[in-house]
Amino acid sequence: MIGKLTGTLLEKNPPEVLLDCHGVGYEVNVPMSTFYNLPAVGERVSLLTQFIVREDAQLLYGFATAPERQAFRELIKISGVGPRTALSILSGMGVADLAQAITLQEAGRLVKVPGIGKKTAERLLLELKGKLGADMGAAHGPAASDAQADILQALLALGYNDKEAAAALKALPPEVGVSDGIKLALKALAR
Q: How far apart are CA 105 and CA 121, in angstroms?
C-alpha cells in the first residue's frame, strides 16, 4: 500500500524514526543499517517501505535500499519469523553478509543475532537458499573469494563482530592470500 516515503526527518529513536511527509508524521521502524545512514534531524530523507497490517496494529518498516527491503520481505515469509525478528536480523548483519551466510550455509553467523536460535537459523538457511543467496549479495558487491571467506571466518572465530570483520576485509588488497590477509586485517583492527 505505502511503498515509499519522502519527507523531513523529525525524530530518530532507534529503531523508530518519525518522518514528516507534507504535514503527516509517519512512524517508521528501520533496521540499524538504515538508521546509521540517515541524515541529521531536519534533513530530507527517502525510505522504501513495507506496510504490515496485524489484528492489533498497522506498522511501517523503512529501508534505505531495495535489497534491504527485498531481504525483509523474504524473511517475513518464513514461518516463525515476524517483522521484529526480520528487523533484528537485518540490524545484526547487512544484506550482503546475510546472503553470504545463506550461500555458505553458515548457521553460526545467524545464531549471533539476538533472538535467533539454532533451529530458527537452520530454518532460515533452508528456506532462503536460492532466494537470498549469492544473487542478493552480488547486487551489493562482488562475491567474496574463497580466501576472503576464510579470512572472514578467522576474524569471526577470533571474536570480532561481522561489521568489524567486513570493514577489515574491505581494506585488504583483492588477491591477498589467507595468512597474509589475516595478518593485515588484524593490523587494521588493532588501530
A: 10
CA dihedral 119, 124, 166, 139 (to 10 degrees): 180
The upper half-sphere exposure of residue 134, i.e. CA atoms within 13 Å in the direction of its Cβ, equals 6
Specify the residue for cell string 539454532: 118
pLDDT in tens, 10-29: 999 989 999 999 999 999 99
| Each residue's pLDDT tens digit, 79-119 | 889 999 999 999 988 888 898 888 888 888 899 888 888 98
8 A C-beta contact, residue 123 and residue 78: yes
Q: How far apart are CA 98 and CA 68, in angstroms?
A: 10
Query: pTM for the full model?
Result: 0.69
Residue where the block lists cell 586485517: 185
